[in-house]
Design a protein that fits this description.
Layout (H helix, E strand, L loop, with lengths): L2 H10 L2 H4 L13 E3 L6 E3 L4 E2 L1 E5 L3 H4 L2 H13 L4 E5 L15 E2 L2 E5 L15 H14 L3 E5 L4 H4 L6 H14 L6 E9 L5 H14 L5 E5 L3 E2 L1 H4 L8 E4 L19 H7 L8 E3 L21 H13 L4 E4 L2 H4 L16 H4 L3 H14 L7 E2 L14 E5 L3 E6 L5 E4 L7 E7 L6 E8 L3 E4 L11 E7 L1
Parallel strand pairs: 4-5, 4-14, 5-8, 8-9, 9-10, 12-13
Antiparallel strand pairs: 1-2, 2-3, 6-7, 11-12, 15-16, 16-17, 17-22, 18-21, 19-20, 19-22
Helix pairs in contact: 4-5, 7-8, 10-11, 11-14
Length: 463
C-alpha cells in the first residue's frame, strides 16, 4: 500500500464521525415533491415540475471539471432539468484525476480525505469531485438523479452485502442531507426481484434519513419499479426502462415491446397512485437491440415518439439518452455499443435539441389538471400508427407519430367552439388550423406524407 493510500485509509476510518456534508456555494434549488393528485412532480411552492432528463451515466468518473462545466451548461441551454448519473459504476471506479471512490472495493469504505482543495491531490478526492458536480448542476438549475451503486456490482459476484450496502447508503444520506437537487435512483439496470434485501436496505436508509429527497428504482430493460417495489415505503415514484429493442427483436412473454405508454397506463391503475416515467427508452445513436452494431441506429424520430407516447399517457416526465453521451465517450476510450462519436459532439444531436419542445408544450397549459384520455380518439391504431391523447377541461393534445389522419370525438372539453392548431415536435412551431364546432367527430390531416417521423401534435383549445 503506497503512502497516499495509507494516508487516505487512516482518514477514512473516521468518516462516519465527521459526517461530511457536500458543500454548496450557489443558491439551492427548490425541493421536489409529488403533487397533491399524486400523478406529477411539483416544487415546494406547488409549481409544476416537468421532468426532462438526460442520461449522463458516467459523468462522475469520466469528466474533468471543465467537462462538467461544459456538459451541464449545455443541458441547461437545451432545457434539461434532470441528469441521471451513476455514483459507482464499478467498485474499483476512479475519476479522471485518478481518485478512487472506495478502499479495497468495499462500498462501506468510501475513500475520504481531510479537505477539498482541488490544487492539493492529497486533499481532493472522488467525493469532492461529486460535490463539485452537484454544485455545477445546481448553478445550472439541474437536479441530479444518482444511482448509489450500479446493479451489476450487486448481482454479479455477490460483492456487496446488505450490511455494507446499509452503511454505504447511510454515508450518502449523511453527506448529502442538505442537498435539494438530489434524487435517488436505487438499483441501476437490474432485475428488481433479485437481491431485494440489498435494494430495500439502500432505499429504506436513504428515505428514512432524508425524507424530502425523492427515491425510485431504475430497473432492467422492459421492466418497471412497480413490479417489485410499488408498495415499498421508500419508493416515491415509479420508473420503467422501455429499453432498446424493436418490436420484432423482443421475444419476452407479456412484454410491452416498444409500446412504452403501456407501462404508464398500467402504473396509473395501481394503488396508491404514484408518478411514473420512462427513465431509459431507446437511446439516440444506439443500435437496435444494443449489441449488433450492424443493426440500424435509433434516431431523433424514435426518442420523440417514446417521449410523446409516454407523457401523453400520463407520465410525469421523460428521460432522453444518447449512446455517446451516456458513456461520455472521449478520444482514446474503448467504445461500447458501436459508438464512434465524441460526447462533446453528441450533445448537439438532433434529438437532444428537440426534447425541450415537449417540456414547453406541456407547461404551456394547466399542467396539473391534465389526464390521459383515449376516448378522444376515434381511430387509435397500433404500433407506430398509435395515437395518444391527453386533456384537461379546456384543452386537448393528440399525438401522431406517422402523420396519419386523426379522427376526434369532440365534446370532451368545454366550449361550443374550439380553436385547433398543429404543433411541430421537431421545431416547436405552432400553426393555426381554425375555429371549429365542438360536436360530432372531426377529422384532422397533418401536412406531409404518412411515414415514420412525420409526427405532429393536434392542439384543441376551448374558446
Amino acid at each position: 500500500m503506497n503512502l497516499k493510500i495509507k494516508y487516505l485509509y487512516a482518514l477514512s476510518i473516521c468518516f462516519l464521525l465527521t459526517a461530511q456534508i457536500g458543500h454548496s456555494q450557489s443558491k439551492s434549488l427548490p425541493q421536489l415533491k409529488v403533487s397533491k393528485n399524486q400523478h406529477y412532480f411539483v416544487t415546494g411552492d406547488e409549481k409544476p415540475f416537468f421532468w426532462l432528463g438526460d442520461t449522463g451515466w458516467l459523468t462522475f468518473g469520466k469528466l474533468d471539471r471543465a467537462g462538467i462545466d461544459k456538459y451541464f451548461k449545455d443541458r441547461k441551454d437545451k432545457g434539461f432539468n434532470v441528469v441521471q448519473v451513476m455514483v459507482l459504476h464499478t467498485l474499483n471506479v476512479t475519476n479522471v484525476y485518478g481518485d478512487m471512490a472506495l478502499i479495497s472495493e468495499d462500498v462501506s469504505k468510501p475513500l475520504i480525505t481531510g479537505g477539498n482543495n482541488f490544487k492539493n491531490p492529497q486533499e481532493y478526492d472522488y467525493w469532492d469531485h461529486v460535490d463539485y458536480t452537484l454544485d455545477v448542476a445546481q448553478k445550472n438549475g439541474i437536479y441530479v438523479a444518482m444511482v448509489p451503486v450500479w446493479g451489476t456490482n450487486v448481482s454479479k459476484g455477490n460483492k456487496v452485502s446488505k450490511a455494507q450496502a446499509t452503511e454505504y447508503a447511510q454515508f450518502l444520506a449523511n453527506r448529502y442531507k442538505n442537498r435539494t437537487n438530489i434524487i435517488w435512483l436505487n438499483g441501476g439496470d437490474t432485475h428488481g426481484n433479485e437481491f431485494m434485501d440489498i435494494w430495500n436496505a439502500i432505499g429504506s436508509t436513504l428515505k428514512t434519513s432524508n425524507s424530502d429527497q425523492l427515491v425510485t428504482f431504475h430497473p432492467f430493460g422492459r421492466t418497471d419499479s412497480s413490479e417489485n417495489y410499488h408498495n415499498a415505503k421508500w419508493l416515491d415514484f415509479n420508473m420503467f426502462q422501455s429499453g432498446h429493442r424493436r418490436y420484432d427483436q423482443d421475444t419476452l412473454p407479456n412484454s410491452f415491446k416498444e409500446d412504452n405508454y403501456k407501462f404508464v397506463q398500467r402504473d396509473l391503475t395501481l394503488k396508491p397512485i404514484k408518478p411514473t416515467l420512462d427513465g431509459e427508452p431507446s437511446y439516440e445513436g444506439i443500435p437496435h437491440g444494443l449489441h449488433d452494431t450492424l443493426q440500424p441506429k435509433w434516431t431523433d424520430n424514435d426518442v420523440r415518439r417514446y417521449g410523446y407516447w409516454s407523457v401523453f399517457a400520463g407520465a410525469a416526465g421523460y428521460t432522453y439518452g444518447h449512446n455517446a453521451v451516456m458513456q461520455m465517450f472521449r478520444k482514446g476510450d474503448k467504445p461500447a455499443y458501436g459508438n464512434k462519436e465524441l460526447w462533446t459532439s453528441a450533445i448537439n444531436a438532433p434529438g437532444a435539441k428537440q426534447m425541450v419542445h415537449i417540456k414547453k408544450l406541456m407547461l404551456a397549459f394547466p399542467y396539473l389538471e391534465r389526464v390521459p384520455d383515449q376516448s378522444l380518439i376515434a381511430n387509435q391504431g397500433e404500433k407506430y400508427d398509435y395515437l395518444v391523447a391527453t386533456r384537461a377541461n379546456n384543452y386537448a393534445l393528440i399525438y401522431t407519430y406517422t402523420g396519419r389522419k386523426i379522427a376526434v370525438n369532440m365534446g370532451k372539453i368545454r366550449g361550443d367552439k374550439i380553436t385547433a392548431s398543429w404543433y411541430n415536435p421537431r421545431n416547436g412551431k405552432e400553426t393555426k388550423i381554425g375555429i371549429i364546432d365542438n360536436t360530432g367527430t372531426k377529422e384532422f390531416q397533418p401536412s406531409g406524407d404518412k411515414k415514420d417521423g412525420n409526427d405532429w401534435v393536434l392542439i384543441l383549445r376551448s374558446n
